[in-house]
Amino acid sequence: MNRRFTKAAVGLAAAAFAVGLSLSATGAAHADPIVPTTWAEIYNPYLNAAGNTLCVDDPSGSTAQFQKLQLFHCHGYASNGGPQRWVFTHVGSDALGGYGTYQIRNAGSGWCIGVSPSVPNSQLEGTDLIQESCADTAHTEWDIAPPNRADSTSPFELELAPGPATSAGWCFSASTFLDTNGTRLVASACNFQDTRRLFNFG
Fold first, then answer.
1. Domain limits of the chain?
2. What is the pLDDT of residues 135-162, one digit of tens each?
3. Among 56, 66, 147, 156, which one is least packed by beta carbons within 10 Å?
4. Which of 46, 62, 43, 39 is nearest to 13 (CA)?
5. Can you tell me the distance from the alpha carbon of 79 to that of 115, in angstroms, rounded to the nearest whole number?
6. What is the model's pTM?
7. Which burial class, exposed, middle or buried, applies to 160 when counting CB atoms under 10 A from its CB (0-12, 13-18, 19+)?
């Protein structure tokens, strides 16, 4: 990863996040996250108490469809970092929140991050995020939803875009608060107050 976070930096990030919530409540001007035009790591800035910053990871660079995704020590900028390189393709905007909607494709496997098409929308809580065919747009489109839209560097939630097969309210989430390699990446009810659900570009 091209950035490393100390405990002090994490403290500052948490303070900025709290300020951001206050700013967003006042209706500050929008400055949504700037999405990289090539590829990016997707990391959680809060799950690194032991100095182990975790990134969204395709285990061992698997090319298997329906491979379950995980969080793992960030190394996307290393020579073996392909499993953590994600390409964002803009596909529209959420009509309700005005957030940008994207498909998120792994640069190595070519698959997109999605939820299982075999799990009913009402039962997605705690289910694994997987790599899925990008052609399955109903299950692989995500809104980038920051709690503080006045700060383009603010952490954000990645929320499943509502559509015929899905509804709003499901977000990327770490399965625990631990900064442990191999932590499951799951769908969970969106909640800006839960730092397991907040990510940023690395």
1. 7-201
2. 999 999 999 999 988 899 999 999 999 8
3. 66
4. 46
5. 29
6. 0.83
7. buried
